Amino acid sequence: MIALGQLGSAALYLAAALAVYSIIVGTIGAISRDAKLLTSARYSSVAVFLAMTTAIVTMEVALLTSDFSVKYVAAHSRLANPTWVKFVTLWAALEGSVLLWGWILTIYTAILALTAKNNILRPWVLVVMQAVQLFFISMTVIAANPFITLLKAPLDGPGPNPLLQNHWMMAVHPVLLYLGYVGLTVPFAFAMAALITKQPGTEWMTQSRRWTMTGWAFLTAGIVAGGWWSYVVLGWGGYWAWDPVENVSFMPWLAATAFIHSIQVQERRRMLKGWNLALIIMAFSLSILGTFLVRSGIISSVHAFGDGPVGPYLLVFFLVLTITSVSLAILRWDQLKDNASLDSALSRESSYLALNVLLLAMVFTVLLGTTFPLIVEAITNNKVTVGAPFFNAISIPIWLLIFLIMGIGPLLPWRKAKEQTVIKNLGFMLVGGFVATIIAYFMGIKKVYPLLTIAIAAYNVVSLVLLIVGAVRPRALATGKSTGSVFKQYAFENKRRFGSMIVHLGVIIMALGIAGSSAYRVDQQIRINYGESAIFQGYELKAKEQFMERSASKISAGSIIEIWKNGKQVSTLKPRINTFGGNPQTIPTPDIYYTFKHDLFLSVVGEFKVGQSYTAIRAVISPIIAWLWFGSILMILGTIYALSPNKKQIKVKAVQNTTENKKGDEV
Amino acid sequence: MKKTIYALLGVVVLGLAGFFIFRSINSSLVYFILPSEYAANPDNYVGKRIRLGGVVEQNSISFNDKSLELNFVVTDSIKSYKVSHYGAPPQLFKENTGVVVEGKFIDGNFKSDEVLVKHSEVYTPAEGSNHYDIEELKDALQ
Predict the structure, then answer these.
(1) B92:A384 CB<8 A
(2) In this predicted complex, what is the ipTM?
(3) What domains lie within chain B, and their CATH numbers?
């Protein structure tokens, strides 16, 4: 019988060979316009996907059956682990993660090969996608092959990093991120195809719009999921620390956000051609640069992926892709010049432009802060880290400015706004912001940034109301229908527009959640004797007793703490410390009492000794932190709504189908 | 004409932004140093947040479990400093273990708000020497 390791390796080699074939045949076919060659290249994209699927399935079979003759399984899995942990161990370490990334890429490419519109762009889109995936597949084969077979299989393995198996969120967060990163590859491939074929118009971006939005939504979900994981697992009660690993996922997100907004200017006004290309190149190459920074071990981070062998590959890939795409853009520079120019500073397009500048300033800040320690160490040999105060000092004002534009931008018409209307709208919004600030101030919020956030949130809510009223009222007046039914109709018929409003509302709610939970966070270490209680922020924490739970894969030890408020018990929390199998690392595992108003977060600190008469816990209150998660869910839902097919489109399709059916009947 | 004005404005704005960013980043740099490095240039770190690395000196740990006050001495075998920390000692915190404490020097004592245990293994000076290899220690702790 053939060993799983050999089967997996063979599948990888086959995938690499097919990708090479597909690139060569696709390129020749595209140049010579040979339909047969192009079809062959398309189907080989599907074949690459099948080969990579074989590799992934093989790895999962090896993991689930604990075949320790496969090196990756021996190094990262463990017999006693529950099945779901075994399953997600695929992406618990470097080699498996790269394999998963490559596989997702082949899914996207195969879907593109089968569904993309048949036009001049398609062959080149596939060639670029294949080139990117060839890089990932060959990196897996050469530098990070998870299928290496061990001559002597161990009887058991150590299991994955305990931090990763401590929460189910870890099963979700990396996959979402990869889906997001790979999603950005598609518009990048379309952009490159547009440059190669000298079609710098809007075709490439309209065709890839769904992919861009999907990738962006996954990236958003992935980043927020990472924050939530940090909150529920890492024991410090926070969700964002400006750690390099977080930063490098944030940078492509910022660039992609700029891109999504900026392409609308090109669609409507045929402007910013070069700019949009630059943005998508940037978004994609930042995702590779980020992966390089955190996977090569040159930047120290709490996540500590360690210095893998993939560093040089990623760096070379980053350089090759950046240099190639930028030179291609320079080569086509004549075509990328804009014919139109800004008519007025008061217009939709100029608000998008301002947003672009601000988002890029954010990218620059994050990039500088993340790489600055490297620069300092290279020059002065000092070891430094850039503290969160730097990132906060720069990014909070930038975000406030972004929100300022987010409110007024959608209210501005294209080309040129009437000053009067703008002043009237701005007046409403500023009054809204002002009133909210006064109310918040008298409700006890005295800090500057939270007040500004509340002001800007109210300003944006008024803006959304104005947008909807502005769209609904004239129609209601003209048709005589009720406002409710016109609103419903508007929401159904303008999914893209209405979806974007939902996303913006989500952003506002998130901003409030972030401001509240960071500015009014209370973080304290408390000692409580068992049988006694301590008061923390209006809660009575009653330490009952120690507990210990054992399962085949882990040992949990912690304190049972009853949460009382106003003489009533509201919850029982069991903060604990987990130990996984033979791994000596102990993982403090917090427990959280969630409410809409705030979260109460308890985590055991210090050494946990059996029989100790007291418990030492870290207690954290984070006001309205739930809003952050809720806001992000709204952002995702809004994107899904914007992407859902329009009623009109469905109707058109239905009509087409019926006519086709009729034709069929006639035959 | 219009273009030159825009370009000039752009340069001024970028210059100002660059200046503020640079100032801001310089003031929020957190240096990672060993006790002997601090001793060589204490003036450099007045009022600044730093990460102090070293080894927990033998017999120096005292923890008051009533008030949750933790005191110990961090050393790189050339120079030692007292560290005071509010909170329970973290997991795996013990004598002769590498630690990084984050905080500030106040009157020659280090006031820490975060203690990170860097390695579980115990540090011992190289044979025939009563000093740690400073470079090695720093690399191991970073």
Answers:
(1) no
(2) 0.85
(3) 29-141 (2.40.50.140)
